Amino acid sequence: MTRVVATLAALVLLALPVAASADVDPASDVLLFQNAFFPRVNPPSDALKNELTALTKQANDQGHNLKVAVIGARLDLGGAPQLYRHPDQYAKFLGTELRSATGLVQPLVVVMKGGVGTYGMGDEAISLKQVEVPDKPTSDQLTQIAIEATKDVSAAAGHPLKAVSAKTVKKKSNNNSSGGAPLVAFMVPVALLLVLGFVLWFRRKTHSGEPAS
Which residues make beta-bridge pairs with 119? Predict the structure, then answer.
């Protein structure tokens, strides 16, 4: 049994680099499971978060697989803080990360101090070129800009969205917070490795004729 524990511990250690790499770009982890990423420090109001979440869901339900990242600080960029205040460069970086993980080029909007960046878009991105972001924006201001940007690019892409009232949007559970997806991204590979390790150990015991307990 001691050998089993040692084997499982080794597998957990092997899985740790997976979690570490996931933290390099938090938004790429979250956007694999959700349509919107929000600042982790001083997050926007629940009403604005829910409004943007509802709008991106509408877009995706219509076949416009839009992703939106609201970046409030360098911390939100994980291991790529040098891209803060460079929305176009970060949009390309994030879009490429998502494409590598999914094999799809999905339209992406990034809103941060410094402006609005896009990736995976055609002419619909033109509507965002003149959008201005305040010099010292709050998370609420950034999210409001993201809301308007979502409406604009969706309409330009032929997927107009219905108005959503921030006051009437049903509040989401904690499962929709930006911190949930990275935990899932960590636990899934760990669980798979543990199961694989147990199966290999059991088969070895069975073939050698030793008791499995």
Answer: 108
